[in-house]
Write a structure and sequence with these properties.
This protein is an alpha/beta fold. Helices cover 62% and strands 10% of the residues. It contains 22 helices and twelve strands. α7 runs antiparallel to α12, α8 packs parallel to α12 and α11 runs antiparallel to α12.
Length: 581
């Protein structure tokens, strides 16, 4: 239960509410334990002696104890719910904040579906157990302890009977807890899988329908669903043994009290009131153990979920600020790759980039070409430190990017990624996502440069048009142009366009290129493109092949000296030689 114990740090901010909940719980237990003793008094002193006044007074005391117990229970529930809900909120917040610190390398290892399950289902399991810890899990031991004390004061001999049953019950509960925990770990893993399949199915529903793969996807979901169901059945069958076993123990205890107490009463060594009180205390002492036993399932599930939550919270971001990192006072935008080597997951047997040496001067446009898998996106991801180099270094104005704080570094970089990501909200909010304080005029200027203004104004609400999830109500080209406008609005010193015009027609692409040449004159621009027509006018064209620079130069230079570049050009534009301009 170590993962659950570590959750105490999330309860500490609410310790006074937790303490108050436990004090109220103690008051409730004391009020409950008074009732059997008052019952004994009614029978032995009231009914046996015909004392009506004592019966009425004691009955009123019993009623008062019951009312107090109910009030304490309500107040305890109020505070325990507040604590548990706040702990759940803090846990979700901690998970999201932690994920926001992750580099791309961390996110490559943890899938989105798994993170969603941890932030929802796993947090809910922990939240439930926090609330129950301030209620049942604490109430049960207090009730048992109080009942044992009261039973001993009533009859030492009968208390021995209960003490003999306790190890058997606790041992059985411990055994089930050991068996159940790994099963709940499997359940959460199966839930991860189910969530992943459903997420992929919903996100790709258009592709599924287009390729008539509905039955295939239904089959994938059914398999994941059956796996989860099978694990749930397995653990429920195990826990189903608990209730009848606990009931058997309680009935044995009560039967023993009645048998022994009845014989003692016949012999004159015991009163009827003491038998009734002993039966009540025996029930009070064993019944909480039934409640405790019923918590084995949620407790095991919460411990498994807590371990999964800590797997995320204990993760270290692969890309972090160095202690000596300092922001640059003024950035011109010179970017240099110096003997850079890189591989994913630090797998040096499969390098993605090898021996990269490249310089982009302020105001230059550097185009990067290459076949799929040649390392184009990996190369530009090293500039904003989405990943860190393994050998060599990437510099901005001569300073290693690892010596610049991440926020300060990325504030100088505008980027339109290969996969266009838009958020729910208005078009205007999406464009000024990187600069929330940008004026409407600045938003329009950026949109015009990205050739997005015209289609935005064709919408009934213009820039106030609300986008659906991930911009579902826009075409691919429209999404890309909004993403480019978003990158331009931050006024970057380094602009990265990662195949960001692939869904745009050639004419619009040419207009975007012309607008960028005017608006981003002093900006260092990196362009990754599949169409060679996009990069003809670049100041420098870099051809990557298997993670290495195969050729570098202007269009005319490469046409003259690079067979690889000439082959790419001829495959797309024919055999003619196109001059710059």
């Amino acid at each position: 239960m170590k993962p659950l114990r570590r959750m105490m740090q999330f309860i500490k901010p609410y310790k006074w509410q937790s303490i108050l909940a436990l004090v109220l719980l103690l008051g409730m237990v004391i009020a409950d334990l008074l009732i059997p003793r008052l019952t004994q008094r009614v029978i032995n002193q009231g009914i046996a002696r015909g004392d009506v006044r004592l019966i009425v007074t004691t009955s009123l005391l019993m009623l008062g104890a019951a009312v107090l117990s109910a009030l304490f229970a309500v107040a305890n529930t109020v505070f325990s719910v507040r604590v548990s809900q706040n702990v759940g909120a803090d846990l979700r917040s901690a998970l999201v904040r932690k994920v926001q610190t992750f580099s791309f390398g961390n996110l490559d290892q943890i899938q989105t579906g798994q993170l969603l399950v941890r932030a929802t289902s796993d947090v809910n399991q922990v939240q439930i157990i926090v609330q129950m810890s301030l209620r049942i899990l604490t109430r049960a031991p207090l009730w048992v302890l109080g009942s044992v004390v009261m039973l001993i004061t009533t009859s030492t001999q009968l208390s021995l009977l209960m003490l003999a049953l306790l190890p058997v019950i606790l041992g059985f509960i411990w055994f089930l807890g050991i068996k159940a925990r790994p099963l709940f770990m499997k359940i959460q893993s199966k839930l991860d899988k189910l969530n992943q399949v459903m997420q992929e199915n919903l996100a790709g529903v258009r592709v599924v329908k287009a390729f008539v793969r509905v039955e295939h996807e239904n089959g994938r979901f059914d398999r994941a669903n059956r796996d989860l169901t099978a694990e749930n059945i397995r653990v429920m069958q195990l826990l189903a043994m608990l209730s009848p076993m606990m009931s058997l123990m309680v009935n044995l205890g009560v039967g023993g009290v009645v048998w022994f107490g009845g014989v003692s009463a016949i012999n004159g060594n015991f009163t009827v009131g003491e038998i009734v009180a002993s039966v009540n205390y025996m029930t009070y002492s064993l019944f909480p153990l039934i409640m405790l036993g019923s918590m084995i399932g949620p407790l095991s599930a919460a411990d498994a979920s807590a371990e999964r939550i800590w797997q995320v919270l204990d993760s270290t971001a692969e890309v972090q600020d160095r202690p000596q990192a300092q922001a640059l006072p003024g950035v011109s935008g010179r970017v240099a790759f110096e003997d850079v080597c890189f591989s994913y997951n630090h797998n040096r047997d499969e390098p993605v980039l090898q021996g990269i040496n490249l310089v982009a001067k302020p105001g230059q446009t550097v185009a990067i070409l290459g076949a799929t898998g040649s390392g184009k996106s990996s190369l530009i991801h090293l500039i904003p430190r989405f990943y860190d180099v393994e050998q060599g270094r990437v510099t901005l104005d001569g300073v290693d990017v690892r010596d610049i704080p991440l926020d300060a570094l990325r504030a100088q970089i505008g980027i339109a990624l290969q996969e266009t990501v838009l958020f729910s909200g208005t078009v205007r909010d999406n464009i000024r996502y990187g600069r929330p304080d940008a004026t409407d005029e600045e938003v329009v200027v950026a949109a015009k440069a990205a050739q997005a203004h015209e289609f935005i104004m064709s919408f009934p609400h213009g820039y106030d048009t609300v986008l659906g999830q991930r911009g579902v109500n826009l075409s691919g080209g429209q999404k890309q142009r909004i993403a480019i406008a978003r990158a331009l609005l931050v006024r970057p010193k380094v602009l990265i366009l990662d195949d960001s015009t692939s869904a745009v027609d050639v004419e619009t692409e040419a207009k975007i290129e012309a607008a960028l040449g005017e608006l981003m004159r002093d900006c260092t621009t990196f362009v990754i493109a599949q169409r060679i027509s996009t990069v003809l006018n670049a100041d420098k064209i870099v051809v990557l092949e298997r993670g290495k620079i195969a050729a570098e130069g202007t269009h005319l230079e490469l046409m003259a000296f690079s067979p690889i570049y000439r082959e790419i050009y001829e495959s797309q534009l024919g055999n003619g030689v196109l001059t710059n301009g």
